[in-house]
Design a protein that fits this description.
By secondary structure, this protein is α+β, with helices and mostly antiparallel strands. The strands form 4 sheets. The protein has a 5-stranded antiparallel β-sheet. The chain has a 5-stranded mixed β-sheet with strand order 13-12-14-15-16, with helices on both faces. α18 crosses α19 (424-433) and α21 packs parallel to α23.
Length: 617
């Protein structure tokens, strides 16, 4: 029996993979994964992993891999239909009975798919033939090489009114070409004609990589600049993302998701090594697309232009996301300088400039505050209006826990912006603000003038700032343990302010001593097995990594080394500061020329170091 794809997708979402696997295997949670001994082969060290939010399991020992349906089939020796029916009963879902209409619809979709596949091959052939000379020149001017063109299956639709029609109609019925969105039928009647003409073609794939539609771009000044396929039995543009399958494959190795505005932007990021880049299809992100992004990463980065249109796009995405926010699931916003897009930024300024923009991506809550404080709030009435707008936004959040945290965040920011209150009320406000309390920024007008793309100021508490630095440094080593072979002596000399992090550092050095070539996954497994699992999860959380892009797993080796050098200077400066305080105290107690000379020496060193950046990267 063939089950409808949407039913199977809903079944996989309804059933907890970790719960089903946990009935046969004792699982331990490590970050976003569950690990345990593989049920498919004998082992003493856990190499089996169940990734709940991605919906798959994998054994690094024997190679077993699959989803929850496949797990039930293998462990209970059931056929596919039997496993589906069993899981459906557990999930409280009725197994759909395939009707004649459903069989006809499935056959129709297969026919439309064959038409789209044939069209994709035609467009590719045209690009690489004589008719595609101008299109190839256009793509070359945009910086695309032959490998990229082939990888993304780019094509060209000839200027002729019926080139595609003439090429395919002998094998594929004309009505099917219309249904597939390849031909257009005039409303007043008459001959059908090609939907795409004289455009560079960008094939659009589904989550599995099957081509289901196309986007076409003019090479000159024609309008519309971009034209997407109409909705078909295979394609609804609000449910699809460009470069989706490639990004999903990359995110399975290192959770990440980057959303840009257009096809060329997504391709440019892939070429630059940002392999989890996708693009919506000419419209604002929909709730369905946001949910799909969360399958790739808990906090996708939305990258917008720095002009007014980019601000509006950020506002639309924020409004769509607020009602569906969940614990641990949100968005971050990276805004490009005015006049730049990812494609142009990378071409003009290089990959590091793009990485810097992404590393400074701001949390959704910060962007909400920036957008709402864009209007003046310099009178009691305007302040009241601001509070009302913020409360209305917060009420959109359906999840009560997330809503309450946003409410506390807003209360804290309002109190900071309009001046501190005195007395018991101020103490109560501070207590309610809790972890969101930050140093005051000053008048609301100054906040309103802060550009959306500017990195927020760090927390004012020196102890908290120092702990965050230490967490970022440990995150760097956990994700890039190859550095230890180069810096182990300097790393072992660090004086940790936090006793807990000091113990983690000691365990890391011990692991490196036993196995110098330890990889990141093995190092995390070692620390978890030795009782550091919870603190390692905290160190590798987005809350920490947002402060140090060089510490992330996807950072390259050179970036990681630069991050180490930066952090090393931070710790050396802290040590110098401590030495200076001790030298001053000694000089007061014993004012000799030698003790005073030591104070002057340390003061000069500290002044020289002031030229370096004293903030977290």
């Amino acid at each position: 029996m063939a089950f409808p794809p949407r039913f199977l997708d809903e079944l996989r979402q309804r059933v907890s993979l970790a719960e089903i696997v946990g009935r046969r295997v004792k699982l331990i949670r490590r970050g976003r994964e569950y690990v345990g001994l593989c049920p498919f082969h004998n082992e003493k060290t856990p190499s089996f992993s169940a990734v709940e939010d991605k919906g798959f399991y994998h054994c690094f020992g024997c190679g077993a891999h699959g989803d929850v349906i496949g797990f039930v089939m293998q462990t209970e020796s059931l056929s596919f239909p039997e496993a589906v029916e069993q899981l459906a009963r557990q999930a409280g879902l009725d197994v759909p009975q395939e009707s004649r209409e459903e069989r006809e619809r499935a056959a129709r979709q297969a026919s439309v798919q064959s038409a789209v596949d044939a069209a994709c091959a035609f467009f590719e052939k045209m690009l690489h033939g004589a008719d595609g000379r101008a299109a190839r020149a256009y793509l070359e001017r945009r910086g695309l090489d032959e490998g990229t063109i082939r990888r993304f299956r780019l094509g060209y639709a000839p200027e002729s009114r019926d080139a595609l029609k003439r090429a395919l109609v002998k094998e594929i019925p004309e009505p099917l070409l219309v249904e597939a969105g390849l031909l257009r039928k005039p409303e007043g009647g008459g001959e059908t004609y090609d939907y795409f003409r004289d455009r560079v073609i960008f094939p659009i794939g589904d989550r599995r990589g099957r081509i289901i539609a196309f986007g076409g771009r003019v090479m000159g000044d024609g309008q519309p600049k971009y034209l997407n396929s109409p909705d078909t039995p295979l394609f609804q543009k609000g449910r699809v993302l460009y470069a989706w399958a490639l990004a999903r494959a990359a995110a399975a190795k290192a959770p990440s998701a980057i959303v840009v505005e257009g096809y060329m932007d997504a391709i440019a990021l892939h070429r630059a090594g940002f392999a989890t880049a996708v693009a919506p299809l000419g419209t604002a992100l929909t709730e369905v697309q946001i949910e799909e992004l969360w399958r790739m990463a808990p906090e996708p980065i939305l990258c917008f232009d720095g002009d007014a249109a980019g601000q509006r796009a950020a506002a639309r995405a924020l409004t769509r996301a607020l009602p569906i926010l969940k614990p641990g699931m949100s968005l971050r916003f990276a805004v490009l300088p005015a006049g730049e897009d990812p494609d142009s930024l990378i071409l003009r300024h290089g990959v590091d400039a793009m990485r810097g923009i992404l590393d400074r991506a701001r949390p959704l809550a910060e962007v909400l505050w920036s957008l709402e404080t864009a209007l003046p709030a310099d009178t009691p009435e305007r302040r009241a209006a601001l509070e009302q707008r913020l409360e209305q936004q917060v009420r959109l959040i359906a999840d009560r826990s997330v809503q309450e945290h946003y409410r506390r965040f807003v209360r804290e920011r309002v109190a900071e912006s309009f001046g501190a209150r005195r007395g018991p009320a101020a103490s109560a406000d501070a207590k309610r603000a809790g972890p969101y309390r930050r140093d005051r920024f000053g008048p609301a007008q100054r906040l309103a003038a802060t550009p959306l793309w500017r990195e927020p100021a760090p927390a004012a508490d020196p102890a908290l700032l120092q702990r965050r630095r230490e967490e970022v440094l440990l995150a760097l080593i956990l994700n890039h343990p190859f550095l230890l072979s180069e810096i182990v002596e300097d790393f072992s000399a660090i004086q940790w302010a936090s006793p807990h992090l000091d113990r983690v550092s000691g365990a890391i050095q011990k692991a490196h001593l036993m196995q110098p070539d330890l990889e990141a996954a093995a190092l995390r497994r070692y620390l978890t097995d030795n009782g550091f699992g919870e603190i390692v999860e905290k160190i590798l959380s987005p809350e920490v990594l947002v402060h140090g892009g060089f510490a992330r797993l996807e950072a390259d080796a050179d970036t990681a080394r630069s991050g180490w050098n930066h952090m090393k200077s931070q710790f050396q400066r802290r040590l110098s500061s401590t030495e200076l305080k001790e030298a001053v105290a000694h000089c007061v107690a014993d004012p000799t020329p030698q003790s005073w000379g030591r104070v002057e020496q340390l003061q000069r060193a500290e002044l020289e170091s002031k030229d370096q950046d004293d903030g977290l990267a």
